[in-house]
Write a structure and sequence with these properties.
Helices cover 31% and strands 16% of the residues. The protein is α/β, with parallel strands linked by helices. The chain starts with a helix and ends in a 15-residue tail after the last helix. The structure holds NADP nicotinamide-adenine-dinucleotide phosphate.
Length: 318
């Protein structure tokens, strides 16, 4: 055998650990297709060391024991919970890059946007009482859609909303060029972005900079009769401020998928608010086949010494 083909031959079969509160068997079945010889293990304390781990919300003990990992794969796009753990600084953390989530996010946001602007919620209520009433037609230009976060998910959402001919603005850390989207960046440009937004879509990662960003002051800068769609994280939003702005009429309504406390407690006023739509953190689900295919491709690249995308920058927090 030539020396070059020996270079990347691992000394033992790949060892992949799985640590998530979900049945590992379907994941193992899919991973087995990708890596027939790999040792697959559902992590429990005392498990042998692994080369790679696929995790969702692992306990600290997992990191204390699994000290030989070459990379850690998060089963989602958001790493805010993971970064609260004490993780060896040199261990690469890889987030999911779309993996079938972006189109789901686009569906969710377009549904909430259309339901509000075309007043389907009103028609549902009218239908229950047999009322036939035609509202005035929608003027799209009166509903500029502002997207907070123009990353993997935000950009897909922006393109879907732009395809429906709504004016689209987006705010991110760095300036962007996306067809049909007006880009704003940095804290300096946040007020101008908010002042020109009527439907606000939150797709930021949760970091120390973005926590509590959506509060009485920032939401108060939106156009009057604004609508909030939060599909990122509950801790971006000061929930009492949202309720106050709904009551004052500044906010016309909200579609909320994520909350400060999940599951949303039964006594929470959002459940019964007539202008709030609650969904149980389902805007974009992790899809097993897409996720395993993406992670397997990245494991192969890493084993071959090739670069991968989706690496988390811990100093930025996302
Ligand atoms: N509800 C659900 O079911 C669900 C499912 C999946 C994900 N999520 C949430 O969606 C979030 C976004 O996912 P993604 O894959 O699109 O993330 P991403 O690719 O990391 O994009 C994040 C975007 O936010 C911007 N950003 C970050 N910090 C900022 C700051 N301080 N000021 C201004 N802009 C800032 C980034 O700017 P730059 O481009 O300049 O870096 C980037 O455009 C995840 O973090 C997760 O919390 C929710």
């Amino acid at each position: 055998m030539p020396a070059t083909s020996l270079m990347h031959t691992p000394p033992h079969p790949l060892r992949i650990s799985f640590c998530a509160r979900t049945d590992p068997q379907p994941w193992f079945d899919a991973l087995r297709q990708e890596f027939p010889k790999a040792q697959l293990q559902a992590w429990s304390s005392g498990a042998p060391p692994a080369d790679y781990a696929i995790v969702w919300a692992p306990p600290q003990q997992f990191f204390d024991e699994q000290t030989q990992l070459k990379a850690l794969f998060n089963m989602g796009a958001g790493v805010d919970a993971l970064l609260k753990r004490d993780i060896a600084p040199q261990l690469p953390i890889v987030r999911l890059n779309d993996a079938g989530m972006a189109v789901q996010m686009a569906e969710y946001v377009c549904h909430a946007l259309i339901r509000h602007t075309r007043q389907f919620d009103v028609f549902e209520a009218q239908a229950r009482t047999g009322l036939w009433h035609e509202p005035v037609a929608l003027e799209r230009a009166r509903y500029p859609v502002g997207i907070l976060g123009l990353g993997v998910l935000g950009e897909r959402v922006a393109r879907a909303v732009a395809a429906l001919d709504f004016p689209v603005l987006a705010w991110s850390r760095s300036a962007k060029q996306v067809a049909g989207v007006r880009s704003f960046c940095g804290t300096d440009q946040l007020p101008a972005f908010l002042a020109q937004t009527r439907v606000l879509v939150n797709l930021l990662p949760l970091t120390p900079e973005t926590e509590n960003l959506l509060n009485r002051s920032t939401l108060g800068q939106l156009q009057s009769g604004a609508y909030l769609i939060n599909v990122a994280r509950g801790r971006h939003v000061m929930e009492d401020d949202v309720l106050a702005l709904l009551d004052s009429g500044h906010l016309a309504g909200a579609a909320l998928d994520v909350f400060r406390t999940e599951p949303l407690p039964p006594e929470h006023p959002f459940w019964r608010h007539p202008r709030v739509t609650v969904t149980p953190h389902i805007a974009a689900r992790t899809l097993l086949p897409d996720t395993v295919a993406q992670i397997a491709g990245k494991i192969r690249a890493l084993e071959a010494g090739l670069p991968i995308d989706g690496l988390v920058d811990r100093s930025r927090g996302y």
